[in-house]
Amino acid sequence: MKKTFWAGSIALLLGLLASQTAFAEGGAVADKFKWLTFLVFGLIIGMTMYVTYRAAKQTSSAADFYAAGRSVTGIQNGWAIAGDYLSAASFLGIAGLISLYGYDGFMYSVGWLVAYITVLLVIAEPCRNIGKYTLGDILAFRNNPKASKVVAAISTVTVSTFYLTAQMVGGGVLVKTLIGIDYEVSVIAVGILMLTYVVFGGMKATTWVQIIKAILLVTASILLVVFTWGQYGFSFPGFLQAAVDNPDIQKQVAKLIGDAATNMTPAELGQRFLEPGLYLKSPIDQISLGMALVLGTAGMPHILMRFFTVPTAQDARTSVIWAMAIIGGFYVLTLFLGLGAAMNVTPNAIMALDKGGNMAAPLLAQFVGGGADSYLGNLFLAFVSAVAFATIVAVVAGLVLASASAMSHDLYVGVIRGEHATAKEQITAARVATVIVGALAIYVGIAAKGQNVAHLVALAFAVAASSNLPAVFLTLYWKKANTYGIVGGMLAGAGSAILLVMLSPNMTYPLAKLADAKKVLEGTPLVVAKEAAPAQWGFSCELFADAACKKEVKAAPEKPAVPGAKEKLAKAQADLATLTDDAAKAAKTKEIAGLEKSITAAEGDLKKFEGQTTSMMGLEKPWFMLKNPGLLSIPIGFLVTILLSLFTRDRRSDEMWDELYVRQNTGINAEGAQAH
Amino acid sequence: MSSNINWAAIDRDPRFQALHKRKTTFLWSLMAISTIYYFLLPIGAAYYPELFKIKVWGPMNVGILFALSEFIVAWTIAAIYARRANRDFDAMAAEIVRDSSLIK
């Protein structure tokens, strides 16, 4: 075991060295400073490797591998849950949203914290009391064990795969943007590193990697906030006033609201950044996402699994309280990170590196340290980037562990071997499943290169909320729930969430893409004056495409034609020839480069979608109008479970109710801690 | 151990019934409060933007205060639950666990 571990580590180091040769030009770090980035990455990876080595020595049984021997303390588990949750999507993503859209980004972060109330009140302690290693174990307590384990495994693997793909692609893009390593190389590095943690150290290593990462992440954020907020004497209104007065923020708001900005003073524009509506335009979609977050978090298999690692239900409670303190505190910090990045780095510079704003926090770190040409600035950048990288690796490790346990513990041991597997066989099965899932994750990460995967995170939460949560919740609290209801409800909930997303605006619609590309190239023609027309709009119009739905039209004057990129380019080139001033020339050249880039992109799209008219579902435009399916799929999941349970009979589900209900409330016969 | 335990009898035991009743009411009221308070934020931002724009302290407006209050409310609910569970529910459960093999 020990030998294989070190052989693996050496292979990994060689791989990382090799990746240095795969360095492409570019990234946020100048070549001169890249050794610094590698040093910090190396130190953090080295630390996690040491932890994995220690954990590997203590991982000998299935309970060690899946549940860290149930020896994690409440506080440790709280940090690990926070680590699991503060994935790159929330750490980089929310800071980025705030830096580009102000208030809406902050509002977006609230739901991620409130989600833990559900976890705390209804899920954590009962699951700890009756569960063993997986979601399947909870459902199998009173439902038909084989049927519920199969459907739980399917759901776990589905949810994990969606989330995993988003993380892998996000990680690949992040590393490429920051330091310029090839996308494929960084996906493989994430995969191998994660496999090393999980295969050798199981849940114990995964937990400690999460703890280390969460502590580093919180430390980095506090440092950044102290530096950025300190400039304003730690006055909150002073800090907000500085944001309102900032000309770059005012420019960003003007860009976002377009025509409406013409009659506003700079102070009003700045204040607008602190008001809702710049990013989240559809309230119903917002509520739908909120439902998926609040109910989905409690159904995420890698979060559920965390509650099996602590010795008692009381520790499960403590861990959620700590997790909420850390996660909530962190989101409050992101308000400062986001606004600080908007003021100091400027929204334009952030978007130049990444359109979604993901680079806001790393760039702020670089600025705080002294800028792109300073050692300290690049050291800070390297630190934040390494933490972000460790975040992705650790979250992927948790997800792979959750899927692998569903495959090995639920499917192989539970269903195929009918619970008759020796201890050694169990842990071997777990490791084999981990390698299979890990290899799959690397493959999916590379295959999905260049795809838009942002909606996959929301989809993972929606499936968890529509399938896992109703099943766990009704199994725990509703006497009449039974196998038929659980199995049917999980399939219906997951199926409807996935189907609705496939019919939603998240998919690629070639006609719209072609029209956009054409608009970029040719510009928009003159728009004739409009007369006011009343709306024909009902609630169903918010949800489904319907030709009868018409939004209210306000009277508007004629709008002149806007020239396209081609026309602008010709004009800019003509202008360039007449310019003599060097600064003006440089600005023009930059403008030309930008125009050429957008022309190439638009022409690429025209070619790519030429001749296509429908999405992969055969639709010309979306049929389901929300990006988040939770509003419909969550009620479907609950309803199908309830109806099927009411109209069928399952003796075991009835007979086991008393035992389940007493045990989930008291913890009698709960799986105990293992001494080492 | 488990063969000695009569689950149905514990379920009928008045002490367990008392635990069940107190826990149920308490949990569902907290859950309802937190859910309603949370959804007020996106609903308010979407349908009452004028309210969210009112400035209260320098550039700080109702919207920012309300979003910050969401954090406070979430933490408070967690703290109330933990206090109550640590003080009452754990003790009630512990008593049932101690007598579990005697309840027939």
User: Order of strands across the biggest sheet of chain A?
Assistant: 1-2
Which structural class best describes the helix and strand composition of chain A? Answer: mainly alpha
Number of domains of chain B: 1
**Mean pLDDT, all residues of chain B:** 88
β-strand number of chain A: 2
CATH class of the largest domain in chain A reads Mainly Alpha
What does it look like?
In chain A, 73% of the residues lie in helices and 1% in strands. Chain A is mainly alpha-helical and 676 residues long. Chain A has three domains: 2-449, Sodium/glucose cotransporter (Up-down Bundle), CATH 1.20.1730; 508-525 and 561-618; 529-555, no CATH class. In chain A, strands 1-2 form a two-stranded antiparallel ribbon. The radius of gyration of chain A is 26 Å and the shape is globular. Mean pLDDT of chain A is 85; it is low at 17-25. By secondary structure, chain B is mainly alpha-helical. Chain B has one domain. Chain B has helices at 7-12, 14-47, 49-53, 62-98, and strands at 55-57, 60-61. A two-stranded antiparallel sheet of chain B has the order 1-2. Chain B is elongated, with a radius of gyration of 22 Å. The two termini of chain B are 14 Å apart. The chains are: A mainly alpha (676), B mainly alpha (104). At the A-B interface, helix 6, helix 10, helix 13, helix 15 and helix 28 of A face helix 1, helix 2, helix 3, strand 2 and helix 4 of B. Chain A: Keywords: Cell membrane, Coiled coil, Ion transport, Membrane, Signal, Sodium, Sodium transport, Symport, Transmembrane, Transmembrane helix, Transport. Chain A: Pfam families: SSF (PF00474). Chain A: This is Sodium/solute symporter. Chain A: Residues 562-612 form a coiled coil. Chain A: Residues 1-24 form the signal peptide. Chain B: InterPro entries: DUF485 (IPR007436).
